[in-house]
Amino acid sequence: KLQFLYLIGSVDVGGETLMVNGAFVGVPTATTTAEEEVVECVQRVYEENKHRAAAVRVGYNKHIEYSARCLRQIPRHVSYLDASRTWLSYWMLNSLDILGVPIGDRAKQPAAKHVDVAAAAPVMGPSIPPASQLVAFIRSCFVSISPTSGGFGGGPGQVPHLAPTYSATLSLLIIGTPEAYDVLKERKALLREWFLTLKNEDGSCVMHHGGEVDVRACYCMMLVAVTIGIDDDEVRRGIAEFVGRCQTYEGGFSCQPYDEAHGGFTFCSSACLTLMRRFDVVDVPRLRRWLAMRQAEGDGGFNGRTNKLIDACYSFWVGSSHSIVKAQATQQAGVKTIEDVLALDTVAYVDIDTYDVSRLETCKAGAQQPAPARPAVEEIDSVGNANTPSDDWVDVEGEGMLDFDQNQLQKFLLFCCQGPSGGLRDKPSVSPDYYHTCYALAGLAISQNTAKVHHVARHGGTSIYSNTTPERPSGRIPGVAVEYEKSPLLPHLLQADGQCEPVVIGAVPEQSLVHHINPVYNLRRERVANALKYFRGRGVIPFPLR
To answer: 90, 71 in Cβ contact below 8 A?
Structure first.
């Protein structure tokens, strides 16, 4: 009965509305009371900041120092995360990478300078441990449980577990040095044998020996396997079918069949099936509907389950799922435009640098293309600038390509979730932490739709974002070399319009821009491409091994 009521969306009895959009009304619970408090808190923050809306910006310096400090030495107050030290490494490294801080061999380059506008003083890039030290720590977390198998634990000498194996792998991909890659290369056979011991007959996987069955295990296993090239038929067998059975009547995915749909499990399932190129097991229309209903009206943030509170981390878990679904829809419809290539490059289904754009309908010789319809710098500046109060929220550029209000999500993240001393938080009423810093920044990257900006910068082009200032990593992006000054791809990238345009709020979008990420990996696009080239020979997710 409840499933039926949810699916029809609303119920009226005797003129009184009992349900709207799948939620009962007029029945207070602890959750609805908490939700009302969160809504009130968020709206109060918006009202207090309304007159400086145009000045919205990312607090680069504070967030960088917040993350770098933990990378140098784990604070005492997070000692309870001793079994998650590889996770801490990943959260901090990825936060710094999204913000444009050089890591690994890239750290030998001059550090990008960021300007703290509030303090009116330039601050140099942070001091972080050298790549060799970071790699040595992650290597020390690998445990052989037999002469032929092993995995990474959360810290040195701890039990091998798929979650820290995943976070250790991502940390090594961010560092991106030959030494970092070799940690995985030298352990490919051990990891494969260990993976096989975690598989069940029905295609499900456990997180560790004696652990829980969970779609997280499927995702973590497949990401590592696909990346380093051990995803043979024996490793893949049954996983896609098991994950498909975890899609619920609501449309999202649960941790195992017949459980509740959840934003985190939906991401793990969508990403796992993308890695396997097996989205054929998904009811996509139902998934899109469920994802679209996760954004709170008025607040802009996402919740992870029906009738639950918004949380900044779901800006990634749900936002990236939207991005994955967009790419899958593009793949199914066929690649026709440069916009389609950008969408598929985002999930590493194609490599835009090697894609033959002459095959595209809009890129054939003599094809007519409209000129870019984005506002000029003067038009943007006339709206307001960082020092000019405004009574209006300023949305700059682009309508967005995803099935949610990308401007509203950025508004929530930048005004409600940035801690005054650095780091990002769940919601305004709580303190920042390292987990939410990583996933809120990743959600911000997803919502900004900056694939075009990223590629234009790499190919030597200019846009309003390449009028570089010291305070943000855009334009000719720090740490991203310009590889093709005269690339034939550049004219088509510059002409790509509409949904390809970035979506960045504020009168000075350069002050809020962060790096483009791959939503399947939650890593910068080039980290994924470089790893796939190293281990698989091409910078794309391969088709299944046979």
So the answer is: no
DSSP string, 170-185: HHHHHH--HHHHHHHH
* Residue length of the chain: 546
pLDDT on residue 478 = 40
Active site (annotated) includes residue 51: no
106, 192, 262, 425: the active-site residue: 262
Phi and psi, residue 371, nearest 5°? -70, 150
Q: For this structure, is 6 an active site residue? A: no
Euclidean distance between CA atoms 208 and 205, whole angstroms: 9
Cβ-contact 267, 317 below 8 angstroms: yes
pTM given for the model: 0.85
Q: Is 313 labeled as catalytic in the residue annotation?
A: yes
| CA–CA separation, 111 and 116 (whole Å) | 15
- Residue 497 annotated in active site: no
Catalytic, out of 139, 161, 187, 305: 305
**Cβ-contact 61, 403 below 8 angstroms:** no
Residues 6+ apart with CB under 8 A from 519: 271, 319, 320, 321, 323, 324, 346, 347, 446
Give the residue carrying structure tokens 């309908």. 361
Q: Tell how far CA 276 is from the center of its chain.
A: 19
Can 114 be counted among the known catalytic residues?
no
Token reading at 223: 């990401």
pLDDT digits (tens, 9 = 90+) for 389-425: 333 333 444 457 789 999 999 999 999 999 999 999 9
Burial 183-207 (b: 16+ CB within 10 A, else e): bbeebeebbbbbbeebbeeebbbbb
Largest CA distance in the chain: 71
**Contact in structure between 408 and 374 (CB atoms under 8 Å):** no
Q: Specify whether 426 is catalytic.
A: yes
As a whole number of angstroms, the distance between CA 448 and CA 445 comes to 5
Q: Which residues of the chain fall short of a pLDDT of 70?
A: 1-26, 105-126, 361-399, 459-488, 497-499, 545-546
CA dist 339 to 270, 344, 493, Å?
Answer: 22, 9, 8
d(CA 203, CA 175): 33
- Residue whose token pair is 């099936």: 273
305 tagged catalytic: yes
Radius of gyration of the chain (CA): 23
Q: Which residues contact 39 (CB under 8 A, 6 or more apart)?
A: 296, 298, 299
Any catalytic annotation for residue 85? no
**Rounded Cα distance, 479 and 79, in Å:** 32
Beta bridge partners, 121, equal: 116
Residue 501 pLDDT: 76
How does DSSP classify residue 126?
P
Distance CA 436, CA 427 (A): 10
pLDDT at 389: 31
Q: Which of 218, 313, 416, 438 is catalytic?
A: 313
Whole-number Cα distances in Å, 287 to 135, 239, 281, 415, 493: 39, 19, 12, 29, 30
Active-site residue among 299, 340, 395, 433?
A: 433
